[in-house]
Amino acid sequence: MKLIVPIVCLLAACGGPDADLAPMLVIAVGQQGSVLGAVGTGVAKLVIEKTGRPMRVRVTSGMDAIVGAGDAELGVSASDAAHLSSNGLRHYEGRPQTQLRLALPGPPLVVGFIVPEDAPQRTLEDLKGLSVPGEYPNARPMHFDGKAMLSTVGMSWSDLEVIPVASFRDGVQALIEGRADAAISSAGSGLTQQADANLGGVRFISLPEGEDVSENMWSEEPGFHAIDVPAGFALGVEEDMVLAAKDTYITANADASADDVYDVVKLLWEQIGELAAVHPIFTRWTHETMTNPRVTIPFHEGTIRLLKEVGAWSPEHEETHQKLLAELSSLM
To answer: Which residues does 35 contact at the CB level (< 8 Å), separation at least 6?
Structure first.
């Protein structure tokens, strides 16, 4: 059962005399406690507060399908998940979301394997043969998070003793309950904080260093790359290390109004600093990340308008955009 959470914008509170004339926008966001949930809810809150435009937050695990079908104008996704859904791969086999477009690249979602702070494991190779939650039928991208990270040391899920769990939350819970030796989690997430509080501390395990790590991860799972993070970057990052990253995406349906999408992304471009207090991930959202040309789905028309307006639309953006459009056209 999908939960629909309305965010109501009252005319008197928002102050916009024409706010009640604008049609409501729907944004599909991740589950409560997840980073994708925080990103989507934060964006909706900013739009409501700054423009008076009414928005409704739809909480679901199937953001791409909802946006791709046009049941929400906007959504939140991640670079790897958007690649899979738009191309009809794996759990989207036979139903490519060819109407999915990129409204704006968001801040990187940094993930890794966490272990109790006093655990002896220091490298990915140390996890070989240990109990680790996996499969994730209700959050399938998590399976590929692990696949991409393990590939950096020549390992796969078959090298671990996989504990079947349904979701990201269930995986971290298994670590908390002592049923797992390690679990995938995201830096700065509420679940990482929960594990830290229950276990007396957790820490992330670093990926290997090397210039080819990012390229190898992108080849293994498009949308993934390595990121160097300093000590103190987030809870569980005790020293400088390398973690995995996939970029969060604000997505839009291809048929969503170009004016509506432009208005939202322009607001984010101008006011993104306002979100820093909402969630730590927003501190990583900069104009540089917003203009990243290495993406996995085509840009929305309204987004292209903004990037050209601010002088950020480059030949690389255009080349990538046209290539991705052609790939999706072949699936229609």
So the answer is: 109, 186, 188, 189, 248, 279, 281
Domain 3-108+248-329 in CATH 3.40.190.10: yes
* Pair 149, 112: CB distance under 8 Å: yes
Using a 10 angstrom Cβ sphere, with 0-12 exposed, 13-18 middle and 19 or more buried, the burial of residue 271 is middle
- Tell me if 43 sits within 8 A of 36, measured CB to CB: no
CATH superfamily of domain region 110-246: Periplasmic binding protein-like II (3.40.190.10)
Residue 121 CA to residue 124 CA, distance in Å, equals 8
The 3-state DSSP class for residue 221 equals: coil
Each residue's pLDDT expressed in tens, for the chain with a length of 332 residues: 333 344 433 333 344 444 455 789 999 998 877 778 889 999 999 999 999 999 999 999 889 999 999 999 999 999 999 999 999 998 899 999 999 999 999 999 999 999 999 999 999 999 999 999 999 887 777 888 999 999 999 999 999 999 999 988 999 999 999 999 999 998 988 899 999 999 999 999 999 999 899 999 999 999 999 999 999 999 999 999 999 999 999 999 999 999 999 999 999 999 998 988 888 889 899 999 999 999 999 999 999 999 999 999 999 999 999 999 999 999 98
